[in-house]
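Hey,

Quick one before I head out. I ran the complex with guanosine-5'-diphosphate overnight. Inputs first:
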Amino acid sequence: MKHIQDTICAPASSVGGGAISVIRVSGPDALLLADKVVAFKTGAALSSEGYTLKYGTVPDVDDVLVAVFRAPHSYTGEDAVEISCHGSVYIVRSILQRLVDAGARMAEPGEFTRRAFAAGKMDLAQAEAVADLIAADSAASHRVALSQLRGGYSRELRELREKLMDIAALMELELDFSEEDVQFAGRAQLQNLLDSAIFRIEKLASSFKEGNAIKNGVPVAIAGAVNAGKSTLLNALLGEQRAIVSDIPGTTRDTVEETLSLDGILFRFIDTAGLRESADSIEKIGIERSYSSISKAEAVIGVLDGCAQLKDVQKACATIVASVPEDKTLILVRNKVDSYDAIAPEEFPKVDSFYRVLPLKYPAFGTYDLDPEKLAEKLAFYLEKKGVRVPPDFRILDISALTGEGLDTLKGLLVASRRQGVPDSNATLVTNLRHYEALVRAQDDLRQVQVGLDRQTPTDLVVQDLRDAIYELGTIFGEVTTEDILDTIFSRFCIGK
Ligand code: GDP
């Protein structure tokens, strides 16, 4: 840390728009600087106890309330004040300017939290959880961030790491007595410890998929033929104009992502380019991306154009189903129910038992108001005939992205698909990519140790793998770290955090 001893200041609330803004000041001179900038009615901040609130005036700028914190009982562990003023950009800027004139330095991104980490107020995983907690916008992501902030899996990993360190130390001792062929570290005990460590780390690492879905949103791809109404559906779901809607086929060239919270669950919708063969190279890239977003998604909304020719709808349906891997939830929607009446009768083939699947609502044929499950059954029959695998939770639903008909049901199906198979709400989840990667590397290292023991590899090589695993685990909560790692982590924070 470059300036660990100086006093830093920064706006701690978003500036402008709010009734009140908070300015944070932390460092050895925090109270002195508060006294220089604020005229207090009831004695200096320097002579105040910690956890007191003082009323004062920043001359010609604003009346303020100043919360006084005394080291080590503050967020950063240093002397600190928080100045509450009116939420005006001008006022905040003026007060910061006076603090800087009095000797403070504007804080770097995440510097308050970095100081809290340096002072041992929190470990690195907890410091990262602060950012997650602030960013959390659903009940689930808030719960996960809060659990991590309160210690999460740090304690468990710390214990595990200490046990591994004990064993490594004993093995290293053996190296000193290598002539005498002694074993201080019981190999059976080590095997047991390795088994349980690998089991535990594997479990944590595998929770990342779930943790990531909670933090960044459950990825849902919106796929389907060009002009089926995917962009319109995305906009309708979000309730705002987000993706480019156009009736020129192939306008959605890139994937568009947007999150939406439904029933406390965060979903991340990914609009994709239409699935079709294309000669246009830019569009081709878009289409390749659609397939890749489908493979990363947890659920896929397959959009069919209910007004298209029947054979095209069936083909589109087969393409979507074939492109969605078996482990995903597929919800098929037949879009544009609002304009079924506008379809010319000659566009529909004869009604027979096979074609009855579509169009259900076409008035000339009467309304076959099949429930979605019945309809899915019928489409499944078609797909099976075509040799296309039918996914286990195959559904279909009539909607209109234009009028909003059926969208509540669609949202309900998404929420329900998520509710099945979600681990219990108290399970420990890894949401941080950095932690996940360190866990995977630690797991690989421990597997190497296992192999080494099985093959009776020389102890010094086995210990090296063990030390690597210990190192990786230590990076998670910051037991071992480098300035580079810290710079990367904290630079992602906002100023004032
Ligand atoms: P995409 O290529 O699948 O993203 O399709 P778009 O969302 O760009 O829509 C293609 C055309 O279909 C546009 O003219 C939309 O206005 C129209 N459209 C989309 N959804 C509906 C709907 O529910 N009803 C009707 N009548 N038209 C729709």
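The radius of gyration is 30 Å.

Talk tomorrow,
K.
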